[in-house]
Amino acid sequence: MEEVEFKLATMDDLKSISAIYEHIHEAFMTTINYPKWLKGLYPTEESAYEAIDNQEMYIYKINGMVVGSVILNHQQDSGYENAQWQIQARDEQVLVIHTLAIDPLYQHKGYASQMLKWIKKQAILKGCLALRLDITENNLPARYLYQKNGFYFTGITSLHREESGIRYSEMFEYNIQKPSDQLELLVSVIDDFVTQRDWHQYHSADNLSKSIIIEAAELLECFQWDDEHDIVHVCEELADVMIYSIQLAIHLHVDIKEIILDKMIKNAQKYPVNKKVTV
User: Fold this and answer.
1) Could you count the other beta carbons within 10 Å of the beta carbon of residue 105?
2) What residue ranges of the chain have pLDDT lower than 50?
């Protein structure tokens, strides 16, 4: 099983990141240079150094090897203000993806999608409303990657990069609040939370089922004496019930969407629209 690690890069990682950039520039000598990255201009060891120094560079490691890197910050380059963004957000509420790079030696293994999945979780933890990025016009591999991972194309605009031979850029945005892959993202956030604290060792079907019942009882307590209730408290207890239910599904290795849809089909068969139900 692969050992995967995402982490903030340090200066110790500079040579590994620079090597990825070098391998990419070498690959572009015999393939189409879709992003129009130019050796000696961008990306370079100097640009990686600056991003590490600003604590904006992150690396993706597989079995101890740095196979990918990405720069994350709130910097929307000149021209972003002219894009047709769908989400209204302040700069600090937008996480911008720059220079996502996978070493050509490790491409076509799904690592870029795994990085984007991790980036989405980071955006949630940072309280962001949107992820944004730009790609060079007609960068077909990048366009496919981002659209496959739930990013929406919002149009083209000039980012004033004509000196690099880039007239227009394609703009993409991901809605953190209403993602197209929301359930998968929630499951991943919960599982990461548990894994980081090494709590899986305490999880069994029995313990998790008990926890669901306990939290459901605490939810019921909110309505114990009358219909008046504290909606904030109700939402917290309701969330606990759902969190434990999701953890049980993770423990049992079942697909949440699949089991719900299967049960709804059975419910529809058991209770057809015109059938009277006696209460």
Assistant:
1) 12
2) none
In whole angstroms, what is the distance from residue 69 CA to residue 18 CA? 10
Task: Judge contact between 115 and 70, C-beta under 8 A.
Answer: yes
Residue 67 and residue 102 in contact, taking contact as beta carbons nearer than 8 Å: yes
Q: What is the pLDDT of residue 114?
A: 93
CA atoms within a 13 Å half-sphere pointing along the CA-CB vector of 57: 24
CA distances from 110 to 67, 91, 113 (A): 12, 30, 5
- pLDDT at site 277: 62
Q: Which two tokens stand for residue 4?
A: 């995967």
Alpha-carbon separation of residue 29 from 13, 32, 34, 101 (angstroms):
25, 8, 12, 17
Q: Tell me how far apart the alpha carbons of residues 130 and 123 are, in angstroms, rounded to a whole number.
A: 8
Enter the tokens of residue 77. 């380059």
**Complete edge-to-edge strand list for the sheet that includes strand 169-175:** 4-8, 57-62, 65-73, 94-102, 130-136, 169-175, 152-157
Residues 6+ apart with CB under 8 A from 27: 104
Tell me the per-residue pLDDT of 39-71, one tens digit each, with 9 for 90 and over: 999 999 999 999 999 999 999 999 999 999 999
User: What does the alpha-carbon distance between residue 167 and residue 56 come to, in Å, rounded to a whole number?
Assistant: 27
Q: Is 169 exposed, middle or buried (0-12, 13-18, 19+ CB in 10 A)?
A: buried
Token pair, residue 168, equals 């227009």
> What average pLDDT is seen over the chain?
91
DSSP state at residue 231: H
171 SS3 class: strand
Pairing type for strands 130-136 and 169-175 reads antiparallel
